[in-house]
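sorry for the late reply, my laptop died twice this morning and i had to redo everyting from scratch. anyway the thing you sent over, i finally got around to it. pasting the sequence first so we're on the same page, its 298 residues, then the predicted structure underneath. double check i copied it right bc i was rushing
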Amino acid sequence: MSEILTSSLTKFTFSGHDTFHCRQLWLKKGYDFVKAGYKFTDSESVVLLGVGKNMVSAIYFWMKAFGLVDKNGNTTEIANYIFSPEGKDPYLEDEATLWLLHYHLIDQGLASIYGLVFNDLRKEKVEFTKDNFLLFVERKASEIGFTQFNKKTAATDFDVLIKMYIRTTGQVKDKEDTFSGLLTDLNLIQEEKKANSLYSIPNEDRNSLPEEIVLYTILNDDNFQNSISLNTLFQDKNQAGSVFAITKNALMEKLESLADNSEYRKYGITLSDHAGVKELQFTSKPDKFDVLNNYYGK
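ok and here's the structure:
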């Protein structure tokens, strides 16, 4: 079950994963299950998926959290793009796909902890503990008028988030490990002090993050028209700077590379600088999936 904190302004959703972080093969397994016409509530789902009952619920939760199924349980456009038999990366062998999934996990907003940590908490505290997170979310809950905050539920979500992004010592030794979190290869969350369980999400250059994934996130946002500023991209909610924890200089370099890319000249993509305000501008917007095709076609 999920616990939802809600108000007229916003809502936070915690739990729903039955304490299981998303494993390496779960999304492909869940995708194939849905495309075969089955439902996660079917009595035979445990046998068909080859996992326990609670794991069936967890797989369904993560399919929704990553935006791979819609509210009716049907696969989404991004799910088909990645996981179909003709999909670009059904077994998640390309790190770019992990960046893409990480973005959708935050942008989807179903599992609120990911947006809260990447958009907000890490900007308040360079280093943080579980207790820091709990105090932070309790404050946010109070701000939206929710007084019955369940600290235990939020604490469980934090444990799952850490497992999603950080490998344990045992998992590091086991190169064939299939139980480590889906997004550990991104190295987004650093464990600063094991004894104190101190973590950080520092801004880094993110050399493994393709410029096309950055452009995809821009095009996936309907809130801007034909231009977006570097400052907005760097600091706003669900934008590249917040989601990918990338330095401003590195983000600027990726925008410059996009503007110089011959694939996008027909869209009039340019990087302007007026009175020190840098903007990525479009004469016309490319289709976001065409942008991904440019990357996966390389």
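The longest helix spans residues 151-165.
thats about all i looked at so far, will dig more tmrw
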